[in-house]
Amino acid sequence: MFYWLTELSDKLSFLNVFRYITFRTGGAIVTALVFVFLFGGPIIDMLRVRQGKGQPIRTDGPQSHLVTKIGTPTMGGLMILSGLLVSTVLWANPLNPYVWIVLGVTLCFGLIGFYDDYLKVTKQTHAGISGKTRLAIEAVVALVAVIVMAKLSRPPIATSLVFPFFKDMVFDLGLFFFVLGTFVIVGAGNAVNLTDGLDGLAIVPVMIAAASFGLISYLAGNAVFAEYLQIHYVAGTGELAVVCGAMIGAGLGFLWFNAPPASIFMGDTGSLALGGLLGTVAVAVKHEIVLAVIGGLFVLEAVSVIVQVVSFKLTGKRVFKMAPIHHHYEQLGWTEPQIVIRFWIVAVVLALAGLASLKLR
After folding, report:
1. Domain range spanning residue 245?
2. 174, 219, 242, 266: which one has the fewest Cβ atoms less than 10 Å from its Cβ?
3. Domain annotation covers residue 227
4. What's the pTM?
5. Would residue 236 count as lying in a domain?
6. Does 184 fall in a domain?
7. Mean pLDDT of 97-123
């Protein structure tokens, strides 16, 4: 909304500042942060009353969770999504289609996660929507988003896969790109979902990834910077920096309440939505492979589950003491703060490695 103030800049020159993505990104961070701070407490109180026993704790998980986490309300993603939505609507350019595509995927994934959380809370079971049904709905949402983004971009880059560190290594995948793009978005959503198992474990790496892709979006959407760095220019994607900024602000506000011991859990409402957001931004700016590097922690969590399941089905043996891998380290005797902070460090290192690809070409 504030972007419209630029129309008055000929009369009030200081309003010209609203043209700058950097200024509006900063505004989005602060707005989302303040919003979640102000309304986070009342939202938690409302959810605690409505949910009663809170999020059901898995009996096959770490036994300590049955004591330390029981009764904690879930659906904290509502706090994040509300702050993200309000801040983005206020600060982003409403005429930019990429903003609405990313918001659309984020909110759709959030609704899927909300219904999943609702089933778990009302039935007091950790089994919500069936996995196949959830993945199918997510795939449809993601495919529509990829198709629209491909139409917005210029050929042949629209359906091409760009390899980091190599400026000329670009492969036009044709129709297969839509499969890949869908996989990236759905995979990102579910990978973040699997990571959300300890207080503060998922939200900080998500913010780190959002900050990284906010920078990438700004650079890829600026013709001058894109040419200097020899990355592919994608017109209009610079505005996604504002969305990523809103995500960071909302995440900081949520972390205030989610810090150990958590007053509320993110739930599938938040984790699916935030992962979907990151995946969609990565596809929009043509940095799908870089997402696998910057979001390497999420990839590791997802791979640990896949390896555990496949190994058990084929050999009857488990590779890890418990999956996802953060539970494996719990079983090894690491304390929850040790796991969380060390995983944050890993996320920072991976983000730096991913950002290095912008210049090393």
Report:
1. 2-286
2. 174
3. yes
4. 0.92
5. yes
6. yes
7. 93
